[in-house]
Amino acid sequence: IEPQKDDLIPFFKKIIDKTKANLIISTGFYNNSLVEFLKNNFSLLDNNVYIYKYNNNNIFLLTKLDFNELRFIIKKSNTLIACHGAPTHLAAAFNKKIIDIYDKSQSNFYIKWNSHFRNYKYIYRDKFNLLSTQLLDNI
User: Fold this and answer.
1) CA gap 51, 111 in Å, rounded
2) Neighbours of 2 (CB within 10 A)
3) What are phi and psi of 41, to 5 degrees?
4) How far is CA 42 from CA 20, 38, 48, 88, in A?
5) What sign for the dihedral angle of Cα 93, 97, 103, 105?
6) Higher pLDDT, 14 or 29
7) What tens digit of pLDDT does each residue of 27-58 get?
8) Is the pLDDT of residue 134 over 90?
């Protein structure tokens, strides 16, 4: 699902345009070129917290979160968009809306792990331009 750098911020803006809400993006513990790109385009707000202002909303980039910080963010959020993993299960435990992304070839595996989720949708991995359209349709 590797988006091009120039695709990210416009996609984030489309999410805000549709939801009229702030957007929180969290990263894994390690940086990559996309995270570095975002950090360079956002303003440092606090230790490992970056902000990008758009219209009347904010996009927050939270880097290097530990598990408890991630749990807190998910608990306070409305919707989680993630590749299937621990954050998806946290969101399910808090009954949050989930848009889960996984590879179609793994459907039989993931159905065992997500069949009990409520407020749940899944999308198959695809090229970013197709995936982003599906995400926006499902938000």
Assistant:
1) 36
2) 9
3) -100, -10
4) 19, 6, 11, 26
5) positive
6) 14
7) 877 888 999 999 999 999 998 999 999 999 99
8) yes
